[in-house]
Amino acid sequence: MRQTLLRAIFLLLLLTGLRPGPAMASHLLGGEMKYEYLDANGPVGTPFRYRITVFIYLNWECPPAGGGSSATQSNVPDGRCNIFLNLYNKTTGQRIVSTQGANTFPCTQISCPTLQNPIQNDQQPTGTFRLPRISNPSITPPQPGGCSIPAGSVPPVRLARYEAIVNLPVSFDGYYAVYTDGTRNFNIDNLQNPSNQNQTLYVEMAPPLLPNSSPTFSDTAVVVICQGDTSILVNNAVDPDGDRLIYSFSTPYNGNQGNAPSFMPPPNPVTYATTGGYSATNPFGTGAGNYAFLNASNGISRYATSRVGRYVVAVEVKEYRTINGSEVLIGSTRREIQLVSRTCSPNNSPQFTPATTSQPRLYTVEEGQSVSFGLAATDPDGNPINLRANSVLLDGSGPFNATFGGSQGTVLPGAPTGSATVQGNGSVSGQFVFNSQCGNGRATPYDVVITASDVACGSKTVADVFQILVTKAIGPNRISGDSIICDRAVARTYSAGGPSATAYQWSVTGGVIQGASTGNTVQVLWNGTGAGRVVLRGISAFGCPTDSVVRTIDVRPAGALAVTPTNAAICPGASTTLTATGGTTYQWTSSTGQTFTGNTITVSPAATTTYSVSTSDGICTTTRQVTVTVNPAAVADAGPITTATCSGIPTTLGTTSLTGYTYSWSPAAGLSNTSAAQPVLVLTNTTSTPQFYTYYVTATTAQGCVARDSVRVTVNPAAVASAGLDRTTCSGIATSIGAASLTGYSYSWSPATGLSSATAANPTLTLTNTTNAQQIFTYILTATNGTNCVNSDTVRIAVNPAAVANAGTNRDVCSGETTTLGTPALAGYSYSWSPAIGLSSATAANPTLTLTNTTSAPQTFTYTLTATTDQTCVSTGTVRITVNPAPIVNAGADSVICDRKTITLGSTALTGYSYSWSPATNLSSATTARPVFTAVNTTQTPLTLTYVVTATTSQICVGSDTVRITVNPRPLLDSIQGAASVCPTVQGIAYSIRNPRGTSYQWLVTGGTLASGQGTAAITVNWGTATPTASVRAFQVNSLGCSSDTVVFPVRVNQQLVTQRPTGPLTVCLANGPFTYQTQLTNGSTYGWQIIGGTQVSSSQNTVQVNFTQPGRAKLVVTESSNPAGGRCLGQSDTLYVNVLPSPATNLLVAGPNRACVSQGPLTFSLPGATGSTYAWTVNGVPQTSPGGTLPVTATTAGTYTVTVRETNTSGCSGPLYSTSVSVVPPLAITGPANYCPESRTGLSYTIGQSSLLTTYRWSVTGGTIVSGQRTGTIRVDFPAGSTNATISVVDTASANCAATFTVRPDNANVALFVASVDAQDDRKINLTLQALNNTNNTSQISIRRRVSGSGNPFQPVGNIANTSTSYTDSGVDADANVYEYQLLLTNSCGTQLFSPTHTTIRAQATAVEGGTGRDEGKVTVTWNPYQGFPVQLYRIYRRTAGGTAELMQTVGASGTSVQLTTGSAGFDQCFRVEAVGPGTLRSNSNEACVTFANDLTFYNVVTPNNDGLNDQFIIKNVELYSGSKLSIFNRWGKEVYKTTDYRNTYDGANASAGVYYYLLELPGGRSYKGWFEVVK
Questions:
Q1: Are 1336 and 1360 in contact (CB under 8 A)?
Q2: With contact defined as beta carbons under 8 Å apart, do 1046 and 1035 qualify?
Q3: Which residues form a coiled coil (predicted)?
């Protein structure tokens, strides 16, 4: 990312009327000059190209209308159209005479229509260099609104820029550039007779052999300073070469306007005024209050003067560069400017914050690192502040990556720096961030100029310069390793030296890196001869490469030394011969210390040995090595010397195979494999005596070494074994196996289980089978005879399982209980039970048994089971069954009871029984025979419960029984209401059930008599005499016959009444009354109310309504009186305290507009309520989410909006609902031209859109001037020439938020065609390189226009492209047949058509002429038309043969249009292309013109090998063009003496005798040539 910074322009306020003067004043206010070295591609004699730029500050005040003159008017308000520069050779001091001659250039001044003589001629003196004016913008800034200048109006000022490229001859010391114009303004205070003194700009230019571009001031210089105050100006400059800059005051120059033939610097100085003490360093004089200071390091200057006036000041910038370790002055430039001191409006200067001023002024980072620092300023007067950073680092889309205040900055056209500005009111801050990148490092720091200017009348500025020094990445500075390479077969190590780096980059020329190339060492295998190179760069921790380190390597040709053994590997005891070639003398050394000489040696080492042979050519000693490997001796092992085996028994011979060995056995009889290391041998002996055999093994190693061994094998007769016949038996039954014993034999049976003897020939076997299936047992008999030969035999015994009879376990059962006997049936079994009584089956394996016992004692029964298998095996089993009597159980009868009643369940317990009830809930015991049940029913419906009793006898016989209990509910408890305190003898006092649940109640009265209502929910009571124990009681009986509890209501019968405390709201809001309070109503009583903090609104019997009069705590007390026959009774209640909260105010108004525009920002409404209150807002009845006292409302449509609000204070009390309304009308909209152009920028009309408000409008224009229409609906505006957007604003003065803005953008677009070039790959395409300049605000497309050159036809459009495009390819052409002219058309936003200069393409044509006899070669003539469109410096002619790569053949001067090339031998098909070379990178190709040569073969018949350069070889002309040819040469006897493929005229017959020879040349495809030639010696 790259950042951009706006180029700042200091305010210019040149005041007139400061003092009387002549009737006419000149236009010069100052200037500066710079130069830029371009290249050395200029014409011969003046090859060095420089771009020279001159800036002239001039007053462009116009004369008064109707004639007359002004004291400060200019006669060239636009500036001169051209200026003429003198250049001098610094070495000789002589003037460099240009070739431009003496010319007259008409110049029309267009800015001032009142100028009497607008057309003036610019006369170019002979020998001068013309610099045309390329821009002249007005740089007069507007004053802030409402400001006035005490001394009068502000005259306009232009900055005219003149620029040209000049070609200069060589000068070893450099040049002087001088421009003089006259005269100065008449009223400059610090000069003597200023109108008679010229203004001279002068710069010293570095020599072309030291390429340099001068520093460029980063800001426009014209400024105003305030009388009696210190002003800060920035004269900081940027040097594109990174040279160190030193700033100083300089004397303004007053040079001669003539064209002197020589020049000796400096020019004549100005003459200062004779009084006042004026000088270069005291431009305001030496009096009190006059001061001038210039910071030599950064160009910041501070000026103060006690007087109003005009003063000329000059600042010189010298640039120093370190060359060969010494700092050298290489040039200087200067700025001269006229300062105006005026009386400024009172204003305090902004100030940088202490945090800003305390920061370092120099930051040092390594390239790749980032740096960031904060900047801030405040204004004592609270004025708006512009905080601006200006630096080359803020280059927009350029290579640097910097921001200020998050902005990448903006670079104005031609500016060396960019700038970014942040704004604030009263204070402002911004962060400068620079992310340095690889390649940003340099010896001098980057300047960041910071200015803070307030926006006020008499604006003030403070400035400072921060510097960032970016150091280059530090890394290795040397390479260590071999510089001379004698043996290229050995990789060499090279190491980095000096400071270490994070990583390394190695590269090699003439060799190949072996392995990694990113460490601090590298291995190189050199593969060429001559000079090689090792190049090293370090990579820093930030990823940046360091400077390269180079080491040159001398790679010597490879030696021819070679060593060849007859055998490189031998067996022990063998020998081999080593032969060395390619040297002169040979020295041999073995690794065992032996030495030899001579080119051949014979060796017979006992172990592997390395032999080295060396030879030397005086510089390099070449060594070669050969290793003679002594292979291990072979090992052959056939096994033990003798071995014995039995007939038919396998035995293994030999030993384990060795790696790499091969084996061979003999004889092969009986062997499993004759090539195995351990074959298996099986032999039979059918006799009764042993037989003997011998076997041999031959072992050969992988290296061919051989060994042999043998083994003697004895084969004994086989043994006889008989285990008997297979048989079947039963478990536990004995049987005999085997046969009679043989003499001399021993026997062994396996396994030994069940055998009477394991070593007898025929033992007895007894086996058991405990499973349910037949088992097979195998017995092996091993018989060993007298020669230890062994044989074996096998017998299989099938053992059937024994029968299993399982009647089951003995058990106790209860009478009538069913139980299962036996076990599950086994497969193949049959069963029989006895007796069969009670069994479900007498033949089942596991029948069920059910028996009853009607007695009171247990009874026992025995059952027998007989089981028979399918192999007829039999077994029996018995089981004993005890049958116990059944239990007796009784849970009792079912019952119905009421809630809370009890009942006894069950019956009397029996001896030996235990009991268990379920569930146990509400039972007195769950384990007794007769528990007590307590009824519980909390519902109002009957509940039916089931209880089960389980009885268990002492024999664990179990029985159960069930009882059902229905529990009816009781009525719920009620409460009684009525008078709790009554007067004695009072009659008819009412009591009632509060919210009765039933209809029938029974009442009981103590201390009085029930007068009425018995059986109902309400009664009246006549009370008797005083008593403290009086009461009223009541209960209810429901329909199920269950009664409720009795509720008791105590009553106090006494003369002193206990009046109940009032009830009602305890916390109220003051404004929300009236509030109702009451006490208990008693018949015959009357009530009186006492209210503190409020007023009684009304009362009725026992109630009262109250309005409270103040916030705080209010009190209510009620007094009761009764007067029955028994006497008067009185009572007073306790006090009721009420918390009265304050309410919001009721006399507020909603603040807010009553008229506004749609969508012009939120409308604000507010209610001035109490602190901490919340608010409920609605807009057109829709509740809003804003709880505060202010509501923003965005009006999206026109109409009437009703806003309501209700306040709720911190006490939670709400106020009244307030309401207001606003009439919303459609928004304002400005219409008019969206762009202004150089030719259309005055008198542009702008108007507002539809509006229902008939009122006045206040217009303002930033970047333009309102000519007419202020306070109406339409205005006319003039815009100055420039590239700054203008903003038009309008405000409806009668409505809120009714405003509109409109941006008018300048369209300064132009279109340039740089190159029209035929495509290098396709002559049917032409590529255009182009650019739409200043196209930021232009949306038109570029029209590509073409015509055939010379046709006279108009241009025709061939395509349209976006104006951001930089190239176009025209595919509808034939560049072989035509020359084309191209022109670009771009229409700007004002409708003006802008055309580019015309470019004409190149058409090349080629004509071929075949070569003649002898050595005459074919020629090609190439012609072309001149390229038109850019200055052609030269033409390059390229040739491409047989579809190969183009090669440069010749370079022709700019005026050339043809060339002849001797090129026939280069190939059959040849194509030529012409390239026009222009300044910089401008290049244009022609079409490709092709020719064809026959290039027939011609054979020369004489060879004279005497090295005189004539006929030294057998020449076949053009033979190199015929690839794949074969040449054979024969002597006169037919013997072939030479043969080759692809002959290249190299046979010289040097080793042949003189005479005639015959040749045969064969071409691919079968064609051949025969002939003869003679070798003459």
A1: no
A2: yes
A3: none
In angstroms, the CA 1464 to CA 1410 distance is: 7
| HEC assignment per residue over 108-137 | ECCCCCCCCCCEEEEEECCCCEEEEEEECC
d(CA 1374, CA 1424): 15
Shortest CA distance to 32 belongs to which of 164, 207, 282, 221? 221
| CA-based nearest residue to 205, from 99, 87, 323 | 87
Residue 1352: CB partners within 8 Å, gap ≥ 6?
Answer: none
* Residue 1000 binned pLDDT confidence (cut-offs 50, 70, 90): confident
* Type of residue numbered 762: N
pLDDT (tens digit per residue) in 1028-1039: 999 999 999 888
C-alpha to C-alpha distance for 1399 and 1376, rounded to whole angstroms: 17
Taking alpha carbons only, the member of 33, 27, 159 closest to residue 87 is 33
Give the alpha-carbon dihedral of 910, 915, 921, 925, to 10 degrees: 60
Containing 356, the helix (H) or strand (E) segment is helix 354-357
Q: Which residue has the tokens 């809930």?
A: 921
**Residue type at position 756:** S
pLDDT reading at 1106 higher than 80: yes
Find the mean pLDDT for residues 337-364. 89
3-state secondary structure at position 92: coil
Beta bridge partners of 1130: 1056, 1121
Burial class (CB in 10 A: 0-12, 13-18, 19+), 659: exposed
Q: How far apart are the first and last CA of the chain?
A: 77
What's the 3-state SS for 1062-1117? CECCCEEEHHHCCEEEECCCCCCEEEEEEEECEEEEEEECCEEEEEECCCEEEEEE
Residues 678-703: tens digit of each pLDDT: 998 989 888 888 889 999 999 999 88
How many Å apart are CA 1424 and CA 1379, to the nearest integer? Answer: 10
Provide the H-helix boundaries in 932-1019.
none
Reported as a single tens digit per residue, the pLDDT across 404-434 is 999 999 988 878 899 999 999 999 999 999 9
Instruction: List CB contacts of 1508: < 8 A, sequence separation 6 or more.
Output: none
CB 964, CB 905: distance < 8 Å = no
User: ∠ at Cα 23 (22, 24), nearest 5°?
Assistant: 95
The pair of three-digit structure tokens given for residue 812, joined into one six-digit string: 């106790």
CA 1443 to chain centre: 46
Contacts of 1140 (CB under 8 A, 6+ apart): 1068, 1069, 1070, 1093, 1094, 1108, 1110, 1111, 1112, 1113, 1114
Residues 79, 85, 90, CA angle at the centre, nearest 5°? Answer: 150
860-907 pLDDT tens trace: 999 999 998 888 888 889 999 999 988 889 999 999 999 999 999 999
* Whole-number Cα distances in Å, 1019 to 506, 991, 997, 1015, 1322: 118, 5, 16, 9, 123
pLDDT tens profile 817-833: 899 999 999 888 899 99
Measured CA to CA, the distance from residue 712 to residue 641 in angstroms comes to: 6
